[in-house]
Design goal:
Elements: E1 5-15, E2 18-29, H1 33-37, E3 39-45, H2 50-53, E4 54-60, E5 68-82, E6 85-102, H3 105-111, E7 118-120, E8 126-154, E9 158-175, E10 182-184, E11 201-211, E12 214-223, E13 226-227, H4 234-238, E14 244-245, E15 248-257
Parallel strand pairs: 4-8
Antiparallel strand pairs: 1-2, 2-5, 3-4, 5-6, 6-8, 7-8, 8-9, 9-10, 9-11, 11-12, 12-15, 13-14
């Protein structure tokens, strides 16, 4: 088994305000006991199943799983704009081998509807699917990370800190179920693959205003939407299903107040 390896190629301050960094490393993770031996029955969504696409999903472990390995690479920069602000940009890539994935019941039913793992009732509707874990031969993920941090001090209203982080996924390559060729799935809902979907963009921002014992926090999170190539039946379209998964934007506001509590012991 390969041992984890981390190599920092360089981390060099070219000017007082500019730092270039790069690294490369390997890692591995063994399958969990649950992935190897556990079993459970869940109620899941299976396209084409009875009861509004709901059916039993029987998950069983796979004792033949191999450890998953990965090679990680990164190159980027930190630009110190002034004493209160800095900007960073990084390009990264992760190359997985034998990543452990769980079979998707809908994909399994669509690819091999007559499999003995597909359980049907007397009317032919799917009422259950047997699924298990498997080693995906290869997965490649690449992207760009960007961040900007700044802090300002206002005498009257307090100190303000602001940070925005963004990730753009440029590649999410996984093997095609039929051909084995690598297919880019960034921004697509993986209707025909067992792995999770990855959006095109993720953006988080954090704002904090602090004055004396009071602190106000504002956090926003944005995730871009997905396209879905699955044909939508007329019955599903009639109740609002579309080939788009909308983007999401979440706002979280919090207030902290430090109170001084005196305790008198008698």
């Amino acid at each position: 088994m390969d041992l984890p390896l981390l190599i920092n190629v360089f981390f060099k301050q070219i000017y007082k305000s500019l730092i270039i960094r790069a690294s490369s490393g390997t890692s591995f993770v063994a399958p969990s006991m649950a992935q190897l031996y556990a079993s459970e029955i869940l109620l899941g969504t299976i396209r084409g199943a009875s009861f509004s696409d709901k059916a039993r999903v029987i998950q069983v472990g796979n004792p033949d799983l191999k450890p998953a390995t990965a090679t990680n690479s990164n190159i980027g920069m930190i630009w110190i704009l002034n004493n209160n602000s800095k900007f960073s940009l990084d390009y990264w890539s992760i190359d997985y081998k034998n990543r452990v994935e769980l079979e998707n019941g809908s994909v399994k039913a669509a690819n091999n509807p007559n499999s003995e793992d597909i359980i049907r009732n007397a009317e032919g509707d799917i009422i259950g699917v047997h699924t298990s874990f498997f080693n995906e031969h290869q997965t490649k993920v690449k992207g760009l990370d960007v961040s900007l941090e700044t802090s300002l001090d206002f005498a009257k209203i307090g100190s303000l800190t602001y940070k925005i982080q963004g990730t753009s996924f440029t590649d999410y390559l996984t093997p095609d179920e039929d051909t084995g060729l690598m297919q880019d799935r960034v921004g697509y809902y993986n209707y025909d693959a067992h792995m999770h979907s990855i959006p095109k963009y993720k953006i988080n921002s954090f704002v904090s205003l602090k004055k004396k014992h009071t602190k106000i926090n504002l956090v926003t999170r944005y995730v871009s939407g997905y396209d879905n190539k699955t044909p939508i039946s007329s019955s599903h379209a009639a109740i609002g299903y579309t080939n788009k998964v909308a983007s999401s934007f979440v706002v979280d506001i919090g207030i902290e107040r430090h109170l001084k509590v005196s305790t008198i012991w008698s």
